[in-house]
Design a protein that fits this description.
The protein is mainly α. The chain has one domain: Arc Repressor Mutant, subunit A. Helices cover about 60% and strands about 10% of the residues. The protein has helices at about 10-30, 35-45, 50-55, 65-75, 95-115, 115-120; strands spanning about 50, 80-85, 85-90. A 3-stranded antiparallel β-sheet has the order 1-3-2. β2 and β3 (about 85-90) form a beta hairpin. α1 (about 10-30) packs across α5 (about 95-115). The radius of gyration is 21 Å and the shape is elongated.
Length: about 130
């Protein structure tokens, strides 16, 4: 078993956690990667909950299209569906959204921490070969 396969190796454990975190973050970004889904999130944040018909009334989209967007958000665990008879009332999964916010902040903080100081003060980083 090599060093990278050793579960007692701190670097491999941290890398595994980072990979899992990056996969979760990418999944959330994919779910949020459409303006209609962002509009749905914003609408639900201001209303607490809404049924599909209420959401459709605020968007210039067909009901079937809105339903597809709602399904993407549900699959990413960003929405909770509270079934009431034949209707489903959607509400935000604030716990998952908070987790996404935290994960995103950690990701960008780690990226910033890797930036060499000279890139902040130096000129253009690219140089054409042969110059």
């Amino acid at each position: 078993m090599g060093k990278a396969d050793d579960p007692s190796d701190k670097d491999s454990v941290v890398s595994g956690q980072c990979l899992k975190s990056c996969e979760e973050l990418a999944s959330i970004f994919r779910a949020l990667g459409h303006p209609a889904r962002l509009a749905i999130i914003k609408q639900l944040a201001s209303q607490d909950e809404a049924c599909c018909g209420e959401i459709v009334s605020h968007l210039p989209l067909a009901q079937s299209t809105v339903s597809q967007h709602l399904q993407v958000l549900k699959d990413a665990d960003l929405l909770i569906c509270d079934a009431r008879g034949r209707n489903c009332h959607y509400l935000l999964n604030w716990s998952k959204l908070s987790q996404a916010e935290h994960c995103s902040a950690q990701f960008w903080d780690s990226i910033k921490s890797m930036r060499p100081d000279e890139r902040e003060t130096a000129g253009p980083a690219t140089q054409i070969a042969g110059e």
